[in-house]
Amino acid sequence: MFFSRPLQSLVRRKGYGTNQLLQDGSHPRRYYDIRVWRNADAAARAAADGEIEDLLGRLAKNLQATLLVDVAWAVEIGLTSAGPWQERREVRDRRTGPTRIADAGREEGNRRGGLDRRMAFRRATEPAPLDIVEAARLARERAHAGYSNFKVGAALETADGRIVTGCNVENATYGLTMCAERIAVFKAVSEGHRAFKRIAIAADTDRPTTPCGACRQVLWEFGGNLEVILADLTSVKARHQLKDLLPHPFDALFLE
User: Which of 44, 56, 200, 232 is the most buried (most CB within 10 A)?
Assistant: First the structure.
């Protein structure tokens, strides 16, 4: 049960994608092992990786897991578009089995190593924070950019530390195309968030890809002078405060 964090770190360090163990808020004893692969090749390499196989084996000794492969489910919620590599893993607390319905009679405090395993289990499954730049890169892979082939991903951090992502979505009528930054903002606002700290933008370009004018205006409306992180597929290229990218913004003060 203590191997979920090393697994998350290993998947990210080797560039396969991301891995998080998340608790279902409506079912406190149900967990999901969420994996978002960078692409089909990364998923295939991860499947053959001996280190990952070893960690999964050690994790299986502590948790009962049922593997669910559901391509439609993963695409529906926007986890990835990498084809048949999506996985959803339902991890159940083994105390829910019939052998733990009643107290087995173990004396209080007589637990292995002096630790209450139930408390340790809950601590071990808290999801590791997702790196905001990596989140933007992963969002970029879901871009609908069949006309320009210019894919952009954005990851917006809310005031309470959550990360909401967006990608550019093109339309045959180019005027209806929507940028990744505005999609991230609109998605976050629609989910009830109203304050933001920073945004990361990822694109496959030699020089930093800055937000367009419309996106800068929308970001100012909801985020004010937030930090703007510009990255390519391997590194962070630049950091700006929004006031430097939009020095004379129009906002609610003009309407008072």
Answer: 200
Q: Are 2 and 120 in contact (CB under 8 A)?
A: yes
Comparing 8 with 225, which gets the higher pLDDT? 225
Looking at the structure, do residues 163 and 188 belong to the same domain, yes or no? yes
Going by the DSSP 8-state scheme, the letter that residue 3 receives in this structure is -
pLDDT at residue 122, as a whole number: 37
CB 230 within 8 A of CB 209: yes
**What is the Cα–Cα distance from 228 to 199, expressed in whole angstroms?**
5
CA distance 95 to 109: 18
Q: What is the DSSP letter of 148?
A: T
Residue 181 known to be catalytic = yes
Domain count, the chain: 2
> What's the predicted TM-score (pTM) here?
0.52
State how far Cα 213 lies from the chain centre.
Answer: 27
Q: How far apart are CA 133 and CA 125, in angstroms?
A: 23
Amino acid at residue number 19 = N
Which pLDDT score is estimated for 199? 98
Catalytic residue, candidates 170, 181, 227, 256 = 181
- Together in a domain, 146 and 108: no
* Structure letter (DSSP) for residue 248: S
Handedness of CA 212, 213, 219, 225 (dihedral sign): positive
Asked if 46 and 8 touch (Cβ cutoff 8 Å), the reply is no
Q: Are residues 164 and 112 in the same domain?
A: no
